[in-house]
Design brief:
The protein has one domain. The mean pLDDT is 86. It is globular, with a radius of gyration of 19 Å. The longest helix has 25 residues. The two termini are 25 Å apart. The chain is 68% helix and 0% strand. The chain is mainly α.
Length: 248
């Protein structure tokens, strides 16, 4: 709750940034990739809407992981004063980003009205897929938070990798670009839990963008990867937790 309350404190626009951030990027992507690179011709819904929806899920991962990586460093005074489960910091850093997703979904309404697109009632089922990116992000967040405490270079590595990973999810381009390169390329691409979750949630919300049933097997794999990542991150975090005070 503290993270949520202080994130946009003393900001003139406040939680409106949760809508403006993906909207500005979606508009930029729509011009560069949709209009100039003709990606808009490869998707069944307006490209701005296509990108905006995907960015809501991507930002949950990218901003959540970035904040989780810094979470221990940001609370060094608490770590040295009293004992409590330190995993609270990276976990809360990620979970608090769900508020941004909620506000982002509210911001989706004007776009739907503007373009005259009606979402499927299955959007509620799409939201049930959020535990996949959440567990994946929390697991990586615990690993990165732990590593960043010992080696402060990790924060810069995470920022760089997140920048590169932006191209690994179907937001700037239509997923058809990948499927057109063959079944093996598509299968390899969908091993990325974020890519398959974004595409699956988009297909449930906007069925005209593709067949959701095609992704059910990949979703099962993504769920397994997310669970393994979460438990691995937790195990490593708890293993090194007794040494945290030495490095702050």
């Amino acid at each position: 709750m503290r993270d949520i309350k202080t994130r946009y404190k003393q900001s003139a626009l406040g939680y409106a940034w949760a809508v403006l951030n993906p909207l500005i990027f979606a508009a930029t992507y729509a011009v560069v990739f949709g209009f100039l690179l003709k990606q808009r011709d490869m998707v069944a819904i307006p490209f701005t809407l296509y990108v905006y929806f995907g960015l809501l899920i991507w930002n949950l991962f990218a901003i959540g992981l970035s904040t989780a990586t810094e979470s221990l460093i940001a609370h060094v005074s608490l770590i040295t004063k009293v004992y409590f489960p330190r995993e609270v910091f990276p976990i809360s850093a990620v979970l608090s980003k769900l508020v941004d997703v909620g506000f982002g979904l509210i911001g989706l309404v004007p776009l739907l009205l503007f373009y005259g697109v009606a979402p499927s009632p299955k959007i509620l089922l799409a939201l049930c897929l959020l535990p996949i990116p959440l567990l994946f992000t929390i697991g990586l967040g615990m690993l990165c938070a732990c590593a960043n405490l010992f080696y402060r270079d990790v924060r810069y590595v995470v920022t760089m990798i997140l920048g590169l990973m932006t191209f690994s999810v179907p937001n700037m381009y239509a997923v058809k670009l990948i499927s057109d390169r063959g079944e093996k390329a598509f299968a390899l691409y969908m091993l990325n839990p974020m890519a398959v979750t974004i595409e699956a949630m988009r297909r449930l919300t906007f069925p005209q963008t593709g067949d959701f049933a095609e992704l059910t097997g990949y979703l099962a794999i993504a769920g397994a990867i997310s669970l393994v990542t979460f438990f691995a991150g937790y195990a490593v975090f708890k293993h090194y937790e007794p040494r945290f005070a030495e490095f702050v």
